[in-house]
Design a protein that fits this description.
It is a single chain. The chain has a 5-stranded antiparallel β-sheet with strand order 1-2-3-4-5. The longest helix is centred in the middle third of the chain and has 25 residues. It contains 12 helices and 5 strands. The protein is globular. The chain is α+β, with helices and mostly antiparallel strands. The protein has a single domain, classed as Nuclear Transport Factor 2, Chain: A, CATH 3.10.450.
Length: 241
């Protein structure tokens, strides 16, 4: 059951990244820059079309999902910025080799989360896409950051609040963090990773990430996954007696 719940959490987080394209129209996009809605809406349309057209192939062959991720998801995620966020002050002291390796491993960790969700929950990703409602994103011309709030319906009349953090990089908007009920995915990883760095150093953290990626471990931080878990029925234990 625990693994099932974490898969569901990843499913919704995946949807959040995918569905960022349905943001309410941004009123003040920087001059010459496509606003997040237009940029990501085109991505969503292409993604859903891909999922529907290759539904069975995706379920049977993970390499298909990896190709879709590389084409339609990775270009809109700022992996280097995420890496800087998750290790905080330690980034300044890291060597170029360590930085490169850390970005590579974090990218692998997140990408495998997307792919796992795509292959395990292809139908649900398509079906749940209409359960997210967005509030308008507002920012002043020239701003390089944008923040967008949304609510996700998770059943039984319950919703979860989500906030997207986007950064303008090389003339394109990229996602660098998602906050679930006020809890930052990047900063939650920072808490976990920071303890390892303090105790054993950055090289040890990189080695642990390499091992997790080799073993296929994509479990999300508990603080982030918790809002999406469905509570077990009170009589569930009795049902198994």
């Amino acid at each position: 059951m625990k693994n099932k719940r974490f898969y569901l959490a990843r499913l919704f987080l995946l949807l959040l990244v995918f569905q960022a394209g349905t943001l309410a129209a941004t009123p003040n996009p920087p001059a010459g820059v496509e606003d997040p809605q237009k940029l990501l809406q085109k991505t969503i349309d292409r993604l859903i079309n891909k999922l529907e057209a290759q539904r069975e192939q995706i379920k049977q062959d993970q390499s298909v999902a990896y190709r879709i991720s590389d084409e339609l998801i990775a270009p809109y995620i700022d992996f280097p910025r995420i890496a800087r966020l998750v290790i905080g002050k330690h980034w300044r002291k890291a060597t170029n080799t360590q930085k490169t390796k850390l970005v590579e491993e974090i990218r692998s960790l997140l990408t495998r989360s997307y792919v796992t969700a795509m292959t395990s929950y292809t139908d649900e990703i398509i079906a749940y896409k209409d359960r997210i409602q967005y509030q308008p994103s507002r920012y002043k011309p020239g701003d390089r950051k944008a923040s967008v709030r949304a609510t996700v319906g998770i059943g039984n009349g319950q919703t979860v609040e989500v906030q997207y953090q986007l950064y303008l990089k090389d003339g394109k908007w990229k996602i660098y963090d998602i906050r679930i009920e006020g809890i930052s995915l990047a900063l939650t990883y920072r808490t976990t990773f920071g303890e390892t760095i303090r105790r054993e150093g950055l090289d040890k953290l990189i080695a642990q990430l390499e091992e997790r990626n080799r073993n296929g471990d994509v479990e999300l931080p508990d603080a982030v996954a918790k809002p999406f878990r469905k509570p077990a029925p009170e009589n569930s234990a009795a049902a198994h007696d």
